[in-house]
């Protein structure tokens, strides 16, 4: 099959050209002997699929594959390598390759996308390092570091269920679409020292998250079930359109956002039971959505808060009546405040069930919020659904299409 595809192409191109470009459409390599047939090709025009081979595969020769390089559902191969390959024009996809322990593409610096999933035996990865990729998905692998990757920008970075991964330190300066980090090694420490802006992120189950240079979150930032005791975004000034949320970070004691002045969407801080004060937002002026806070805190302060488009809904297991008295000054005029908060204002103390409400919509507020009447909850619910479920963003996207 391989020969049938390759030979006519070689014949058509002529011998000199054949040495440099081989057009294969899609070719399946079943053995090293078949892989070696590509050795004279500088550019392989097409997609290379590694079949059910049990042996190691070495793809020395080509510097570029214009299509994909794929290895799927192979439980036998243990090593795949190429010292020459620099670029994969399509996707470098490996899925369910459970005995693979070594990937060595020591010259590979550019792929369009990389997706490695269920590589449960992978131990050693060498890449150029990889400098260019739109999308990197690494899921359910046995990798313990990402030293093979040196991207300065990427659209999608999704790292999940890599149980041995305990440190991510990366020179990314921007991330254009989505970062997801979840369920990796216990005590995972994440550092993005050079990251200046990021479109969206969800980060869960990490012990440290460091973004000292981060200035802008264009979309949303969500932190769930992390193990850090403190969180700081020292240079963050705004989220352009999305939310900031911290839910169920059981050890969190200290948050600081010393320069954050504007949140385009909503703010949700809930069920972080170690957090005894919500005073991190000392410069926050504008919130495009709602603010919802639930926890064991005794103090809540937003000294610079000027405009909240949605509801302001706070409830604690502790007595926060002093904070409530102060915050009430910001309530809508209809509730006796000066109108900085445009949605419904609600602030309740001694609510045993405060931590049970972590939803980004307030449909359950009625059961936990104490004395609010249902009309107010309805209004608050609308504000939250729009802000925290990202409907504003979806609507904007829909109208842009
Ligand atoms: C994974 O690959 C093995 C062959 O190695 C196959 O038997 C199995 O069905 C594949 N699993 C999935 C979920 O595709
Ligand atoms: C990877 O391949 C390069 C080139 O063949 C070789 O020099 C290097 O030692 C290999 N690295 C590993 C970790 O096998
Ligand atoms: C990573 O890339 C940066 C430039 O973006 C370069 O300065 C640095 O040396 C690279 N690191 C490695 C390990 O290749
Ligand atoms: C995110 O915001 C930064 C700073 O304002 C901007 O340079 C960048 O283009 C924005 N990115 C996206 C994807 O909107
Ligand atoms: C990891 O985070 C998820 C939320 O994204 C949570 O459901 C899960 O319980 C966490 N796991 C651990 C071990 O903390
Ligand atoms: C934080 O921002 C200030 C002013 O914009 C800048 O001088 C400083 O270098 C930034 N810090 C980091 C760690 O990027
Ligand atoms: C990420 O954020 C941008 C705003 O910069 C938004 O338009 C986009 O829809 C978000 N993407 C995802 C996958 O949430
Ligand atoms: C909270 O964190 C900030 C900066 O990370 C630090 O300066 C401050 O001392 C911490 N406060 C507490 C009570 O730990
Ligand atoms: C937080 O409040 C809940 C509900 O009252 C309580 O069970 C829990 O012990 C408190 N946790 C801390 C760390 O104070
Ligand atoms: C609150 O967080 C604790 C862990 O700290 C978790 O066990 C519990 O399920 C969370 N509650 C809700 C409603 O998410």
Automatic annotation (TrEMBL):
InterPro entries (alphabetical): CWI-Assembly_Regulator, Rcpt_L-dom_sf
Biased composition (Polar residues): 343-352
Main subcellular localisation: secreted
One Pfam assignment: Ecm33
Region (Disordered): 331-375
GO aspect biological process, one term: fungal-type cell wall organization
Signal peptide start and end residues: 1-18
Subcellular location per the Swiss-Prot or TrEMBL entry: Secreted, Cell wall
Recorded GO CC terms: cell surface; fungal-type cell wall; plasma membrane
Keywords annotated in UniProt: Cell wall, Glycoprotein, Secreted, Signal
Protein name in UniProt: Uncharacterized protein
Organism: Achaetomium macrosporum
Lineage: Eukaryota, Fungi, Dikarya, Ascomycota, Pezizomycotina
